[in-house]
Every structure is written in C-alpha cells, then in structure tokens.
Amino acid sequence: MVLEVRNLNVYIKASHILRNVSIEMGENEVISLIGRNGAGKTTLLRSIMGFAKPESGSITFEGRDVTRCSPHETALAGIGYAPEESDIFADLTTLENIEIATWTRKTGRNEEERIKLAYSVFPTLERYKTRRGTQISGGERKMLSIARALAMDPRILLLDESFEGLSPAIIPQIAESIHEIARMGRPILLAESNIYHVPDFVDKIYVIERGEIIFSGKSEELLNDKAVLKIVAGAA
Questions:
Q1: Tens of pLDDT, residues 185-211
Q2: pTM higher than 0.85 for the full model?
Q3: How far apart are CA 80 and CA 100, in angstroms?
Q4: Distances (CA, A) of 223 to 83, 195, 205, 232
Q5: Among 13, 24, 78, 127, which is disulfide-ready with 155 (CB 3.0 to 4.6 Å)?
C-alpha cells in the first residue's frame, strides 16, 4: 500500500472528530472520501498532511511512519495537497503560484518540466499565466490549487472538495483533468460532500459519518446500500 491510515483518533479541543478511522490506498488508485459537511473529511486530510495531530493511531506512507511529521516534512516525503479553500497566493500570478511549488521538493523533474506538466493538465492556466490570483474565477482558483500541488511532483495527491461551489459547466472539465492526473499513475484521495460530484473513474469509495468510516467499497456497492446511500445523498 502507498498510504495506510490505521485506527486514527483526532480531537480538536474537546471534540472527538475522527474515531478509529482506517483507510488504505494502493498504487494507481483513485479513492473518494464522501461525507456530509462536518463529517470529518477535511480533518482526515489535514491529519495526513500533519496539520492536525492524532491522539492515537498511525499514518504510514510508502512504508514510513508519518503520523507525527510536520506539514513541511509530509510535503517533502511526496504528499501533495489542494485544500478546500484553494489557498492560492492572491498577489502572485498563476505562473508564480505554480513556480513556488517546484522549489519545495526535489525530484527527477526540473522546474520547466513541472510547469509544462501542470499546464498540460490545465491549459486554461497557461492562457492566464500573467493574471494574479484576484483576477481569476473560482473554478480557475481550484484548477490552480491542484496544479500547484501537481507541480510539487508528489507521489500522491489529496484533493479536498475540488468541485465545491463550482458551476455545473466547469465540473466536468476539472474532473477530466483529475482523471488525466490519475492516468499518469498518481494515486489520488478525493474528498467530496456531494455524491453526485464523485467521478465515475473512482476505484474505491469510503463514506465517513460523524467521524467514523461506515462504508468501504465500489461505487456500485454503495448504490446498493440503501442505508448508507440515504446518508450521503442527503449531503447533495
């Protein structure tokens, strides 16, 4: 397994947010983590990245225990992260936002190759490379957030709510870009609150509810589980 989370418990102040959460990601897998707002999706991704510190449990990445690693150490290990809020640098151009990521982690690809790769997945950003973060749309900010994570040349990608709040017209475009990244052989963990936004190329689905994993399986298995489907469909 590339990524294994085992019996993770995370508290934020006095609240028990994640309860014995376990997930695993294999090579070339695209996994979707579905849950209603507040179910624990973002906390799980932030825990993997090192922003939230678990009370107990473990996170293993490529055989290495990264449970207590800082976000910087996690990024250097090869985990890319595109947060829900996009968190791009508004005062920088789209090109500068992507360039910054190429300085973070040294790999076999140089800066030029990484930028070219990001633009091949999101050609819209190349057309707007001189525009600042304040001059692009919400959908383009989502693209830039993912492109910046990709430019780090990570082994895996964590994408938090990549389709949240976007126009229905742009969602298929971003979904196809994510699919293109997956076809490159990069495992992806995609957190999503709307089951109807989950791409059809997803290999496995986890459903999280009130901090607990209540389902793990294929898309067709979820569609046949009426009890779980009722919970996640209510998030749409």
A1: 999 999 999 898 899 999 999 999 999
A2: yes
A3: 13
A4: 28, 10, 11, 11
A5: 78
